[in-house]
From TrEMBL:
One matching Pfam family: ATP_bind_1
UniProt KW Nuclease keyword: no
Lineage: superkingdom: Bacteria
The protein, known as: ATP/GTP-binding protein
Keywords: GTP-binding, Hydrolase, Nucleotide-binding
Entry's family note: Belongs to the GPN-loop GTPase family.
Amino acid sequence: MIFGRSERRKTPVEPVTLKILVAGGFGVGKTTLVGAVSEIRPLRTEEVLTEAGRPVDDIAGVERKSTTTVAMDFGRITLRDDLVLYVFGTPGQDRFWFLWDELATGALGAVVLADTRRLEDCFAAVDYFERRSIPFIVGVNCFDGAARHPADAVRQALDLDPDVPVVLCDARDKESVKDVLIAVVGHAAEAAEHRQPAAT
Ligand SMILES: Nc1nc2c(ncn2[C@@H]2O[C@H](COP(=O)(O)OP(=O)(O)OP(=O)(O)O)[C@@H](O)[C@H]2O)c(=O)[nH]1
Ligand SMILES: [Mg+2]
């Protein structure tokens, strides 16, 4: 009885929901990342890569890849009782750029996933968020067999502002991806503080 009464008096906390984008080049692990962390079955829009698409779909470096995202990935993760993230993975190929503006609307921040073997593939995503002043962090997806580069080397190669966090991660690992998402939320919160200094 006591249990029931105290439960009833508790007002449930409505969680704050935030939208985070996951961007980056073709086959860098965006769909994998969303799938690793989502507590709901992630929505995927994968299509099979075909022989006909070979001239446009550059699978160099990801030869074992058989599908590609054509619209978006969507997943949800509860970081705290009062904080839920909706995570949207973008399609990686250039021919789907027209979808980005739609996906970016209302986003609090973004993760640009990078593969150090094909770092140039994420230049476009970095540019996109810089131009729109959307706070972003860079997540270096440490593929097996890829040389490990320290975060600072990646920062230099991408010519990032000093305040942009660079974190090493494994897109297949839930805890690792969680750390990435916590970093982007923290970075976006800091960026917001700088933009709107507290009224005096
Ligand atoms: N070894 C290793 N393989 C990975 C990792 N992340 C992803 N992969 C593999 O790399 C391939 C590409 O992963 P996806 O998650 O489909 O990549 P994506 O960025 O969503 O690709 P697009 O949507 O086509 O741009 C898949 O075969 C994954 O299993 C990783 O951290 N390590
Ligand atoms: Mg994908």
